[in-house]
Amino acid sequence: MRDLLLHVEEIEDAVEVHCSRERSRAASKIIEEYLIPFIEKHQYQIPKSCRLHPDNDLFRDQEQHKIRIDVDEWKCGYCRKSFYEERYIDKHFEQRHNNLLNVSHGKCLADVCGALHCDHHIGLPQKTKCNPAASARNKHLCESIADSCFPVSRGPTSSRVHEFFLRQFCDAHTCTGKSKPFSRGRKKRMNILYIVISVLTMLLLLFFYTFIYLYQRGVKSGTQNLRRVSQSGRKKKPS
Ligand SMILES: [Zn+2]
Question: Ligand 1 being an ion, which residues bring their Cβ within 5 A of it?
């Protein structure tokens, strides 16, 4: 039993040291922005064995418990403690809630960063000299992800997403500089909050203009009535 506990502790330590939270977050954002909208358009289900599946992100649960209250206020969703900066809440997760990391099933999403162009996304300065060996390695990783997540043998939809994935992520792993990462662009997913705010704004505008219109009509008919009253008054005077 003690050995087992020691072993679990060792695994936890290993994950803590070897999986970068920041790079995992970058990979997760890239998947969310540059892949998921296209997958949803094709109504494709990513298999759980795929390294890009959300369940294979070790930090996903913690990231979902990160509540942003304001520009400089973050709240821990587990214990409600507040923080001024994201890096402090990250540290807090590391120190207080790492027991919640699903180490047994979790995988390190940062490991696919090479394939997904995380450095480009984070905005790290690009190396002036392209390394052909590193590019070839990333291309290989990229293509193997495409093969396991969207196997061509799985049917036409899977083939289409496979093709898309190669163009979007894998083509740019070359030193020729011909192809840029995310060449197929990004599509923002429609956020429910965004839709609600838009509808409310439109309704408010509608009410505002209706009010202005009715008000102006009211003023007009009011002056007409006044004119009528004063005209009839003038007509009545001579008699
Ligand atoms: Zn907490």
Answer: 76, 78-79, 81
